[in-house]
Amino acid sequence: MSKPLFFIPAAVFLLLAVFLWRGLYLDPTELPSVLIDKPMPAFAMTNLADEPVDNTDLPGRVFLLNVWGSYCLPCLVEHPTLMRLSEEGEFPVVGVNYKDRQPLALDWLELHGNPFEYSILDEDGRFGIDLGVYGAPETFLVDGEGVIRYRHVGVLDETVWRDVFAPAIAELRAGAPRS
Amino acid sequence: MMKPHRRKRLGIILFIATGLSVAAGLTLYALSQNINMFYSPSQVANGEVGADTMFRIGGMVKDGSVDQRADSLAVSFVTTDFVHEVPIEYEGILPDLFREGQGIVAEGRLDTAGVFQASRVLAKHDENYMSPEVKAALERAGASPESHRFGESAEY
Amino acid sequence: MIPELGQFSLILAFCLSLLLGALPLAGAATGNALWMSLGRPLSAGLFVFLGLCLLILGHAFVTDDFSVRVVAAQSNSLLPMQYKFTALWGGHEGSFLLWTFMLAGWILAVSLFSADMPREFTARVLGVLGLLCASYILFMLATSNPFDRMTPVPPADGADLNSALQDIGFILHPPTLYMGYVGFSVVFAFAIAALLSGRLDAAWARWSRPWANVSWAILTIGIALGSWWAYYELGWGGWWAWDPVENPPLITWLFGAALIHSLAVSEKRGVFKSWTVLLAILAFGGSLLGTFITRSGLLTSVHAFASDPSRGVFILAILGVFVGGALLLFALRAPLIKSGFGFGSLSREVFLLANNIILAVAAASVFLGTLFPMFYQAITGDLISIGPPYFNVIFVPLMILLIVLLGIGPVSRWKKTSGAYLWRQLGKLAVASALIGVALPLIVLLDVSIPATIAVALAAWIVLTIGRDLRAKTANKPSRWRGLRSLGYGYFGMQGAHFGVAVMLVGVAMTSWFSSETSVLLRPGETVALGGYDFRFAGAERIAGPNYNADRATVMVTRNGAEVAELQPELRVYLASGAPSTEMAIDPSLLRDLFVTPGEIRENGAWTMTVYVKPFVRWIWLGAIFMALGATVASADRRYRKLATAKPRDKARDETRDETGQASGLGGLRPAAGGEA
Fold it and tell me: What is the predicted pLDDT for the residue at A178?
C-alpha cells in the first residue's frame, strides 16, 4: 500500500472539521431582524405606570430598546449594565415589558432598580410580534430618527456592550451622522 | 514467490473496494429516498411544494384556530408564520406541549384542497427546546414570538 | 465561599493535568526516569481534585445554593433530595464536570494497573490522557464554569429540573454513557503511545484489549439505559428514534465493536495493525463528536443542551487537535508498520475483516445520516430532515449479513479454512436454522411472516453455532466439564456477547413487527381491545405528588376476562416550572409489555390515550446486558494477566514472537479459546 493512502483519514477529517465549523454558524443565535434599518413599528400602548405612550415619546437620539420580564433570570445578569447606562445617561434605555404581569414587573423594578426611562407594557406579546422578538432578553439599538439599527438576542453584559454595541454605535455615528 | 502473495492481496483489496462501493451506493440511494424537505407556511402558500410529496411544515399554532372533535381524536388547526397560513388536519393524540401560540412541526402531505394532512405532529419537547426548523421558518417570515424561559436564555 | 473552593480546586486540577500532560511525555522522549515516574502521583492528585470539585458542586445542589448559576438553572427547593444531587448532570456545566471526572477516574485506573507495561509506554499513555484532561478543564474554565455565581442578587428559588429528567433512568444513563465514552480515550491514548514509540506490536494489542472491552461493555449499558429511559419516559412506544444525539454513542459503539474484533486479530496474528489503530482513533473521535453535537447546539434535539457557538468552537478545537493530530500521526507513522499477510482468502482473518467492514460501514452510514442535514444546509441553505427509514434500510441488511458471519467466524480457523470444512461443520445448522425460522412463527402466530422468519432463523443460527462450537471444543477432553473449564474467560465472554446479539435480535424483530398500538378517546367505564387484551378505563382521580399535582387514570387490563394488570398513567403539572408532563404506565414482563400513554383530559371527563402491546421488548435490553457481561468476562481472561507479567520489554524479542510464535495457531481448535469476542 502506498503512503498517500494513509493520509485519506486525515483529509476526510479536515473536510469534516470545516463543515462542522461552518455548521456551528448555520443555526444562528444572533437572529437577523427584518426590521434592521427600518423604522420602529408604530405603536400606541401604555407603560408600566399606566400612562399612554406612542412613537412620539421615543427619545430623539440614539437609544436602546430592551425587552425584559420579571420571569427572566438572564435579565438580572444584564441588569447592572443597563443600570450603568442609565446612570451615565448618554444612551437612554426604553424597556419593553414582554409577556409579563404588571404587578410582578413593578415589584421586580422596585427590588432591583429601574434602569428604564419607561417600560412599554406588552402583556400579551403583541408588540413583541411587531418587533419580531424571539424572547427576553433582547436589545435593539435605535437611532435618533427611530430607525432600528441593530438587534442583539440574549444578555447584554459589559462584554457585549464593549465588543458589539460600542463599535455599532461608533459605526452608526461615522456612517450616518444624523444623531 | 511474491506473485501469489500480491495477487491475494489485490484480491482482498478488490473485495473490500467492491463491498465499500456497493455500501456507499446503497447508502446514498437510501439517503435520497428519505430526505424530508422543510417548508414554512409562506412557501407552502406560494405553491413551492408539489402535491403528494411528503414534507415537514413548521410554524406557530394560530390563536383560536384549534378545533377538536368532541367524540374522536380528529383535530384541525391553522399554522402560521404571521404572513401566510396553512390549515392542518390530524388524527391522533397531540403532544403535551401543543398549545395555541406555540411552535410546532408537522409531517405529512398536502391534499387536493390545500389542507395539510399530518401524519405526525411534534411540539417543542419542553420549554428549553424550540425546533430550529420552526425558528428558521419564523425567521424567514420575519416574526417569532416565543417567550424565553430561563433555561434557554441563560445560555446566551 | 464553598463554591469558590470548588473553583480553586478546578484550577489546581488544571495545573496537575498540564504537568501530567508535559512531564511523563518529556520524560519518555528524553529517557528521564524521574519525570516518567511522576505520572502516577499526578494522576492520583488529578482524581482527588476533580472529585473534590464534584463534591462541592453536589453540595451546592443539595443545600439549594441558588447563588450558583447552574443550581439556579437546574434545581429547585421543592425538588426531591435524590434529584437535587442528580440535577448536577442535568445541565451542560455539571455534566461536563462529571465527564472530566470520569476521565480522571480512567487515568487513575491506567496508572494503577500499568505495572506490567514498559515505563516509557505508560508514561506516554498518561501524558496523552493528561493533555486531553487539561483541554477539558480549560474548556470548563473558559466557557462553562460550573461554579459561576449569579450576581448581584441570587434568585430566591431555582428554575427546576426538566421533568423528563426527574427519573431513575436519567440518574443512571449519563454517568454510564460518559464512563463508556471516556473509556475509549484510554484505548486512544494506547494507540497514540504506540504510534509515538513506533512499537505497534502484539503486546500493544494485548494491553489495549481489556480496556477496549470494558469501555465497550460500559458504553453498551449506557446506550441501553438511554434507550430504556426514552422508552418509558418519552412515551411514544419506541426504544430507538435515530435522534441526532442518540446516534453518536451508537457510532462510537459500532467502531468500538469493530475495534474489539480487530484487536483480537492484531494480537493473535499480527495483521491489520494500522487498521486497528485507525479504529481506536475513530472510536475516540466518535465519542468527542457526541460531545460536540450535544454541547454545541449544532443539531437541536430532545436532549441537546442549549446552543452556544463559542463552546462549539472550543470543542471543535479539541476535536481538531486530538483527532486531527492523531490522524496526522497515523498518516506519518502507519506506513512504517510491518504487517504480516499470511492468511488465505477463506480464514478467520477474512471473516473478522468482513465483520470490521460491516461495522465500519454501519457506523459511517449512521454518521452520514446524522450530519447530512447539516451538510445539506451548508451547501444549499435548505432545511431537511432524514427519516428513520433511511437508517432502517441501511441497518437491517448489514446486520443480517453480520449475523450470518457471526455464526461462521468462531468456527473458522486462523490462516486458512477450507470451504468444505466449514460446510461440514455448519451446513446442517444452516438448514436447521432455516427450518426453525419457518416453523416457529408458523406454530406460534399461525401465519407466515417473512421478517419473523428471517429473525427467528438468524437467532437460531447464532444459538446453534454457539452450541455446536462449545461441543466441538470440549469433545476431546476427558469430560465435558473439564473441557469447559479449559476454555478460558475470553472464549466464554465472546460466546456470551454473541448470545446477547441473538437475544437482542429477537427483541428488536418482535417489537418492530408485532407491536400493536391504538390511540383512543375513552370515557370512564369504556373499553378498548388490542392484541388480545381488553383495556378498561376505570376512572380518574386527582393526586398531589412531592413537587407536582397530577390527574391519575386507572386502566384495568384483562385477557379473556382474567385480570392481568392495573395501569395508572398520570398527567402531571410540576409546581416550580408549571411544565406539564405525561407519565405513562407500563406493565412489564419478559414476553410482552402493556403500556398506556395519557394524552389529555376532555371537558366531559373522557381521556385520550394511546395503548400499546409490545411483545419481547425487554429482550432488547436483556441482549445488551449479555453483550456487556460477555465483553467484561472476556477482559478478565487470564492471558492478559499471565502474559503481562512476562514483561515483554524487549522489542526485538516481541517481534520475533509475532512472526514465529503463532505457529501453534494451526494446531486445531484449541487456540480459539483465546476469546475473539
Answer: 42
Of B27, B92, B125, the CB nearest to C519: B92
Pair B44, B14 in one domain: no
Nearest CA in chain C to B120: C236
Identify the pLDDT of residue C151. Answer: 66
User: B25 and B52 share a domain?
Assistant: no
C285–A13 CB contact, under 8 Å: yes
Residues B3, B19: one domain? yes
pLDDT value for C301: 40
Burial of A162 (0-12, 13-18, 19+ CB in 10 A): exposed
Check pLDDT > 60 for residue C180. yes
Which chain C residues have a beta carbon less than 8 Å from that of A73?
Answer: 72-73, 150, 155, 159
Residue in B with minimal Cα distance to C349? B12
Task: Note whether residue B154 is domain-resident.
Answer: no
In this predicted structure, the answer to whether residue C153 has a pLDDT above a threshold of 60 is yes
The answer to whether A31 faces chain B, any CB pair under 8 Å, is yes
Which of the two residues, A134 and C328, has the higher pLDDT score?
C328
Regarding whether B8 and B72 lie in a shared domain, the answer is no
Give residues 286 to 315 of C whose Cβ lies within 8 Å of B: 300, 302, 304-308
Whichever domain contains B103, its CATH number is 2.40.50.140
The mean pLDDT value for C477-486 works out to 75
Q: A72 vs B153: CB contact, 8 Å cut-off? A: yes
Per-residue model confidence (pLDDT) at position A35: 62
Do B73 and B100 fall into the same domain? yes
Q: Which of residues 101-130 of A touch B (CB under 8 A)?
A: 125, 128-129
Cell of C93: 456545566
Is the predicted pLDDT of residue A17 greater than 90, yes or no? no
Residues B62 and B30 occupy one common structural domain = no
Q: What domains can be seen in chain A, in order of their start residue?
A: 30-175 (3.40.30.10)
User: What pLDDT score does C655 carry?
Assistant: 38
CB proximity under 8 Å: B 93-112 to C? 93-94, 96-97
Record the cell numbers describing residue C373, joined without a space: 442535514
User: pLDDT at position C308, please?
Assistant: 58
Residue B125 domain-assigned (yes or no): yes
Q: Is there a domain that residue B61 lies in?
A: yes
Clarify whether residues B57 and B107 are in a common domain.
yes
Mean pLDDT of C51-70: 89
- pLDDT of amino acid A31: 43
Angstrom distance (rounded) from CA C658 to CA C621: 39
How many of the other CB atoms lie within 10 Å of CB of B3?
A: 7
pLDDT tens digits for range C318-352 = 999 999 999 999 998 888 776 666 677 788 888 89
Specify the DSSP element, H or E, that contains A21: helix A8-24
The per-residue pLDDT for range A94-122, each reduced to its tens digit, is: 999 887 788 888 888 888 889 998 999 88
Q: Does A144 touch chain C (CB under 8 A)?
A: no
Across the strands, what pairs with C550? C543, C572
Q: Which domain holds residue B20?
A: 1-35
Q: CA C21 to CA C137: how far, in whole Å?
A: 13
pLDDT at C461 over 90: yes
β-pairing, B67-68 vs B74-80, is antiparallel
Q: Do C300 and A9 touch (CB under 8 A)?
A: no
- Measured CA to CA, the distance from residue A138 to residue A65 in angstroms comes to 8
| CA distance to A27, C302, C374, per residue, from C297 (Å) | 8, 11, 12
What the block records as the C-alpha cell of C131 is: 493533555
Domain-located, residue B121 = yes
B48 and B20 assigned to the same domain? no
